[in-house]
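> forwarded from #structure-qc
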């Protein structure tokens, strides 16, 4: 199983690894709850660099442009072709549109296998950071539950 996120965040950019910050903790919890061994899952991003703006002393995430996705596409293609995953899980809309196509909507199309541009079944789900940004505990719990269920659905599809 390959998980594709949007882009590195500040913590990821500094560490040089994907999903090591707060969203990474949410993702790890979701993988555990879904019964998936994180060591058997390859994690990457559609955009390989951190696109940000400075606010005071902080680097604040900015949504990557389509040109960033396009520029990083060769690296994502190389990862997919080298790994040949049974299924790709797209974390958030940027990743889903990069892997499945511009027509996909995470809220509408989540939880079901869709054809990817790589010829490998793909699932779209919310990004773990969406769980962190949810406005209240109930919304965070619902987001976490959706992420876990979508990971389970992808694992079933892949025979994991």
């Amino acid at each position: 199983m390959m998980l594709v996120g949007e882009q590195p965040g500040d913590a990821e950019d500094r560490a040089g690894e994907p999903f090591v910050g707060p969203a990474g903790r949410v993702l790890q919890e979701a993988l555990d709850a879904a019964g998936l061994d994180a060591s058997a899952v390859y994690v990457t991003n559609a955009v390989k660099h951190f696109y940000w703006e400075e606010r005071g002393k902080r680097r604040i995430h900015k949504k990557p442009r389509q040109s960033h996705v396009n520029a990083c596409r060769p690296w994502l293609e190389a990862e997919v072709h080298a790994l040949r995953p049974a299924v790709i899980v797209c974390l958030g809309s940027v990743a889903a549109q990069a892997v499945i196509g511009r027509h996909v909507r995470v809220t509408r199309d989540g939880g079901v296998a869709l054809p990817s541009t790589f010829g490998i079944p793909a699932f779209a789900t919310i990004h773990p950071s969406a769980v962190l940004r949810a406005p209240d505990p109930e919304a965070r719990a619902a987001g976490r539950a959706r992420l876990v269920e979508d990971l389970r659905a992808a694992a079933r599809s892949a025979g994991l």
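QC bot note: The two ends are 9 Å apart (CA to CA). Helices lie at 10-15, 22-33, 66-83, 93-99, 106-109, 128-133, 137-158.
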